[in-house]
């Protein structure tokens, strides 16, 4: 299976284990999102080469001095651990972890901010599976190849936001947005727009004044008949994780790991859908296309 076609996993059970189709490549991104259990003492994310651990990422919550341990396990022996005495995750709270594969190291971000770096001790090309365990719930595990200069690093993104989707919306394409709905705003909405050269393939807009979500498209100078949903998964002042996944017939929208909306493809040349825009009452902290 082509790397682009490894579909994301939504709400898998823990412990979770799956092969990484095609292995790791320079420029690949692994996204793990979930919730730390209220009484958690630890959880772990492991990139594995057979029975060896090329990366063991292990937050500990039990002690007063809460730490994140990074290490390797090879030939039955643990390597020299790296203890990071800062904890980006909270018990009972949602978390968002991103692992970027580079030639020299794994670059790790937590909740949309750069967190740590771990130099390769085992060649990343040997990694063939991921294992996730411990006291947490998962809502998303996703793999994508981010070609050089085609990804935006974690941080704060200016809104209105615009980005090129290189290669269009390919089979298995996943678009990930993380941010916060502003507590107050003039627009009373957020807009997520997937454009092609002559129109809009998918328009997704939570409307806070009406407490609903509008889904529609724009072709030949006209808007389609809008689809309105009374299911409003966003709240002002609250953080969110939106994942838009292309299936054969629909765009599937997941918010904080739960599938909330689908929209039938009105424009079927999906390889021509090459622009993402985000506007409205939102602060973005992470974007992956």
What can you tell me about this protein's structure?
- This protein is mainly beta and 289 residues long.
- It has two domains: 3-145, Sandwich (Jelly Rolls); 161-288, Jelly Rolls (Sandwich).
- The protein contains no helices and 25 strands.
- It has strands at residues 9-10, 16-19, 28-36, 43-49, 52-60, 67-74, 77-78, 82-84, 94-101, 105-110, 113-119, 129-134, 136-145, 161-164, 174-181, 190-196, 199-207, 212-219, 222-223, 227-229, 239-246, 250-255, 258-264, 275-280, 282-288.
- The strands form four sheets. Strands 2, 4, 5, 6, 7, 8 and 12 form a seven-stranded antiparallel beta sheet that branches.
- It is globular, with a radius of gyration of 19 Å.
- The two termini are 20 Å apart.
- Residues 148-154 have low confidence and may be disordered.
